[in-house]
Structure formats: C-alpha cells, structure tokens
C-alpha cells in the first residue's frame, strides 16, 4: 500500500466520525446533547409555527423554547422535519446510531464535534472530496479498510501532515480509485 491509500484512511475515518456527528444533528434527541452553533443573525422559530407532530417530538423543550438560541430552535425544527420524513427502518437505524453516540465518552464526542466544525468550515469542493473519499472507503472490503487503518496509524504525525498536503494539491481527476 502506498501513501495515497493511507491518506484516504484519514479522510475516511474523519468522514466516518462526521457521520456520527451528523446523526446528532438529524435525530431530535441528539439535538439535546449536540446542538450546532447558532448562526449569527438567524431568526428563531416560534413554537406556534411548529406542526403538531413537531411539537410532540419537542415537547420537552416547550417550556424553555423561547429561551433557546435562534440557531438551536432552527436546528431542532429542521431535525424534527427530517425525523418525520424518515421511514420506520431509517428511524430505527438513527436510534441505534444515536445510542452509539451517547455511549461515547464526552471527550470523544467533543473531538467529533470539533471535526464536524472543521468539516463545515471547508470549502464546498473540499467537502465534496471528503464525502467522495468516504464513499470510496465504504466500498472497500473490511480487510482492505483494516489494512488502510493500520497503515495510517503507523504513520508519524509528520507523515500524515505531509500526505494530507500532497492530497490537497492534487486535482480530483488524478486520484486513483480504490483497489486500482
């Protein structure tokens, strides 16, 4: 395996961690423990503007709704919209992912949130590359993924940094497909 494969590991692992963080934004219960940073100047959502099903999902917030930051209100409202559009199977999967999220130590959840903020600060093109690399990682066999993880873990921090820099300089069209 070469450094290109190892670099994909880092981004894929980061994207995997981001997927957990995304769940925290998408599931209403997750929003209680992992709310996104409020957007500056974003108007909030009035409780009366929520649909009945949304109010049912957010009933624990009703008494303090007006005290929530506008960004949190908006995130919770959007999260309930997504939740209500999920199939029962998707909801069950989301619940399981959220339970895994809740079982993580606080330090690990904080690290995930930091990575998510880092991801959100990337330009759209770089976000697309991260998503693409994560998809490539998911297409690998479990054995290939494990080999890539091991290779990445064996790299020194300096080797990882240099590799990331080289990958950023490359155009997406130059990147090889996994296994090829």
Description:
By secondary structure, the protein is mostly helical. Helices cover 70% and strands 0% of the residues. The chain has a domain at 8-40 and 48-59 and 66-141. The protein is built from 9 helices and no strands. Helix 1 (3-26) packs across helix 5 (88-103) and helix 1 (3-26) crosses helix 6 (106-121). The chain starts with a helix and ends in an 11-residue tail after the last helix. 23% of the residues are buried.
Q: Report the order of strands and helices.
A: HHHHHHHHH
Residues in β-strands, percent: under 5%
Q: Describe the biggest sheet?
A: none
User: In which range does the helix fraction lie?
Assistant: over 70%
What structural class do the secondary elements suggest?
mainly alpha
- Radius of gyration equals 19 Å
Shape: elongated
What's the β-strand tally? 0
Structure at a glance:
By secondary structure, this protein is mostly helical. The chain has helices at residues 3-26, 28-33, 52-57, 70-85, 88-103, 106-121, 124-139, 142-154, 157-169. The model is unreliable at 1-39 (pLDDT under 50).
């Amino acid at each position: 395996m070469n450094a290109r494969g190892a670099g994909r590991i880092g981004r894929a692992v980061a994207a995997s961690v981001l997927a957990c963080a995304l769940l925290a934004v998408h599931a209403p219960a997750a929003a209680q423990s992992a709310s996104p940073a409020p957007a500056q100047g974003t108007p909030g959502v009035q409780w009366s503007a929520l649909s009945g099903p949304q109010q049912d999902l957010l009933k624990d917030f009703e008494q303090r709704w007006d005290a929530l930051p506008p960004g949190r209100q908006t995130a919770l409202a959007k999260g309930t919209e997504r939740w209500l559009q999920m199939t029962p199977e998707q909801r069950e999967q989301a619940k399981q992912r959220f339970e895994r999220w809740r079982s993580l130590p606080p330090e690990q959840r904080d690290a995930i949130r930091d990575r998510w903020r880092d991801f959100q600060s990337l330009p759209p093109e770089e976000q697309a590359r991260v998503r693409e690399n994560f998809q490539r990682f998911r297409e690998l066999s479990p054995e290939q993924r494990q080999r890539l993880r091991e290779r990445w873990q064996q790299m020194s921090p300096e080797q990882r940094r240099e590799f990331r820099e080289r990958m950023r300089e490359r155009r997406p069209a130059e990147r090889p497909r996994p296994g090829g």
